[in-house]
Amino acid sequence: MPAIAETRDAVESLGQSTYKWGFETEIEMDMAPKGLTEDTIRLISHRKQEPEWLLEWRLKAFQAWLGMTEPSWAKVSHPPIDFQDAHYYAAPKKKAGPKSLEEVDPELLRTYEKLGIPLHEQALLAGVELPEGEVARPPVAVDAVFDSVSVVTTFRETLAKAGVIFCPISEAVREHPELVRRYLGSVVPVADNFYAALNSAVFTDGSFVYVPKGVRCPMELSTYFRINARNTGQFERTLIVVEDGASVSYLEGCTAPMRDENQLHAAVVELVAMDDASIKYSTVQNWYPGDEQGRGGIYNFVTKRGACRGDRSKISWTQVETGSAITWKYPSCILQGDGAVGEFYSVAVTNNHQQADTGTKMIHLGRNTRSTIIAKTISAGHSDSTYRGLVRMMPKAAGARNFTQCDSLLIGDQCGAHTVPYIESRNLSAKIEHEATTSKISEDQLFYCRQRGLSEEDAVGLIVNGFCKDVLKELPMEFAVEAQKLLQISLEGSVG
Amino acid sequence: MNAIAPVGVSAAAFLNRYTGGDGNATRAQAADLLRKTGLPRSGVEAWKYTSLRTLADIPFAGAPVQADEAAVDTLLADAVRAYDLDADLPRAVMVNGRFAPDLSRLPDGVSVTRFAAGADLTAHDDVASALNALLAEDGLTLTVASGVDAGRMVLLSVVVAPDGVALSVHPRHRIVLGAGARLSVLDLSVGRGDYLNNPVLDVAVAKGGHLIHAKLQTEDPAARHLAVVHAEVGADASYDSFTLTLGAALARHEVHARLNAEGGIVHVNGAQLLDGRQIADLTSVITHAAPSCNSRQTVKNVLAGHARGVFQGKILVERVAQKTDGYQMNQALLLSDHAEIDAKPELEIYADDVRCSHGATVGALDADQLFYLRSRGVAGEEARAILVKAFLHDAVELMGDEALRAVLNRAVETWWTRKDA
């Protein structure tokens, strides 16, 4: 392509928004009136035909929430949130509830098609020719959550054969009340923090996964969250329980339409891993980040925590955070069982006026527990990005081990990158190593790429991908490809 | 700088002693702050790991002008002997928070003046400085004129509390170095009894000046020590500090250093050797407010018994401070199963063309190294001593003044011997 045309295209592509998931779906919604009172909670509970114990649980959370104040220690700033000015329940109107995909509103299906989320169960057959441009992918079971409710969950029969339960949590409350009642709130108690308490009071849906003893989940499980309706908050609740010797890999993705107002997303994710169990939880977070002037975007205030209850259990968090106006999120591991392993791999990219305060907590309780933290932070534009992490060795964590590495990359001189690790040890034989660096993209690397004919933007993309490689390689393959593209798109317009 | 949420414990014990009579605006401001926020307890982010809750219940009294002379003499003689201080070394001595000219030998080249509240009370926004501003009665301003190399001196604080009385002293000092001036200060504190020592030191180093500040804190094991240093560093100037904390039941040394012009250098190094139920906190905020400055920090904690060590170190790089070079290392050695370390090394960076890094390690003595020494006939305790001193060596080694480095090394030696005994 001639140089002039290339430049023109590049400039044009910068002019328009790069958030391609910003469309809105016209669909009839069933909404609760604005505001949050006990009545709202009773309404949600009633709509979802919940048992009495869950309503009481919600009301307990609501009472606790009323007495709490918003946390102020994070390095983020936003105007005060009016919690009475939002709808706490929004569901696509449906007739009787879809029994199969055919009954789902076609408008919804088209939405997910546009998002590239496979809701049709396609069998993967050897030798079948795929249409040009389509890549063969292993089947992934998807639970699609649209605003407040789960619209469809695929591959349920295949999973059921293996004994795996994968369904919306509201359904699990009805079908498997003993499991839900036993584990819900056992990792993140109702009054854990301001946003977790709010979530506990008003959560509407989310995914539930139960993998029984010794079962290796036959496919990747995935939940796709979509905020669509205006003036709603999304409060989903995910609970994953993996029994002795079982394992599961779980993916989570999310998008939202482009809007000028801010919308709140306050989710809670709880993971429980028993003896020798393993949970891999991957997130590609791509909520709408707001426009170049910092208008609109999602406030992503999320509590994610996993309990390694069993000996030799393992929980691994991998996250690629490119979206949201504000991210406040600390996926954590409580390493209770002896020899338990916790991992946290994170890439957080902020551009324009985004703010991210994210990191992890590794609480070592058991003997010979191990944790690894690799966090890569990239700031561009006028954004601020903070890594905030806690490593705590409790007195009984003999022989425990932690390694932490946090690297920050600054692109441009109007952004900020911050590192705030908390390191606490009460055990003589526990070992902690932490290192952190902050720098900009090296001139030498840029020059090397430019000299070989890469545009500045491509060169930055390449270098950033290299910077994030340690984290990206932890993602399941198809997610890694998506994440790489996402990184490039997120940083568009930040150089040159 | 230190966001203070109103969640503290009552500072009434101190506020009751403030009369407001002298009409000093800084004092009134400090009183307002303490009334509003109280004394911090954990939960206030800047005081996350160190609570002053225990101070609230002690009826501290102002120190009497006359201290027990025999006790003062003994403490002075002990310090000189323990650290093998040169008998001719100039010194400025403070007894119970007041300047003691009879015990002092003032140096040539340093102009020493007494504290005058109206002129010398600089306002700061941290709680320990506010507490000092509220009750400061005396202190020294050490000024070195441009181009003068004033050599070495000791700033010595002695506090003797009468039996059964809890004293609090709040000296306010200032060190001012003119362009190209040089000075090395050994800042030594000793004492006996139940007291709170709350010294605040304002430092200003002009272009090309060079201040070495070696602090050795050996307060009474029952005492509390709450110190703050505010340092302003000019172009091509340096503030080179080392703080060795051995004494006090509860101690906090807080440093706010600001690099104001190009080419400035700040070193905030230190070591805390703690035993028993001691709690010691080294907190620093190094602000790069100009391009091409350099900050270095190496902090070691050696923790025995039920001791708890705290390190909070922040490097703040402002938008203008391009070409900043910042490095911070903090390491802790736990010698007992009941010791605890809490560390929060923090980078806050708003400029892109910078090189900043920090590292932290926590662990016990290396079993392989111990085995190596023992297999060569070095007995258990001695082998441990060798390894602990080696661990401290690369921090103490950074002290730029050789004689003061020797003092610090002797203090480490003394601590180890005493710990064994």
Automatic annotation (TrEMBL), chain A:
Transmembrane domains' residue ranges: none
Domain named SUF system FeS cluster assembly SufBD N-terminal: residues: 160-217
Residues of the SUF system FeS cluster assembly SufBD core domain: 225-467
GO biological process, one term: iron-sulfur cluster assembly
Coiled-coil positions: none
Superkingdom field: Bacteria
SUPFAM superfamilies noted in UniProt: Stabilizer of iron transporter SufD
Pfam families: SUFBD_core, SufBD_N
Family: Belongs to the iron-sulfur cluster assembly SufBD family.
UniProt cross-references to NCBIfam families, sorted A to Z: PRK11814.1 (NF008773), sufB (TIGR01980)
PANTHER family xref list: FES CLUSTER ASSEMBLY PROTEIN SUF (PTHR30508), UPF0051 PROTEIN ABCI8, CHLOROPLASTIC-RELATED (PTHR30508:SF1)
Protein name as annotated: Fe-S cluster assembly protein SufB
Originating species: Gluconacetobacter asukensis
UniProtKB/TrEMBL annotation, chain B:
Ranges of residues in domain SUF system FeS cluster assembly SufBD core: 168-391
Listed InterPro entries: Fe-S_cluster_assembly_SufBD, SUF_FeS_clus_asmbl_SufBD_core, SUF_FeS_clus_asmbl_SufBD_sf, SUF_FeS_clus_asmbl_SufD, SufBD_N
Domain of life: Bacteria
One Gene Ontology term from the biological process aspect of the record: iron-sulfur cluster assembly
UniProt domain SUF system FeS cluster assembly SufBD N-terminal: residue ranges: 24-153
Pfam families found in the cross-reference section: SUFBD_core, SufBD_N
Family, per entry: Belongs to the iron-sulfur cluster assembly SufBD family.
Name by which UniProt lists this protein: Fe-S cluster assembly protein SufD
Source organism (scientific name): Gluconacetobacter asukensis
Gene: sufD
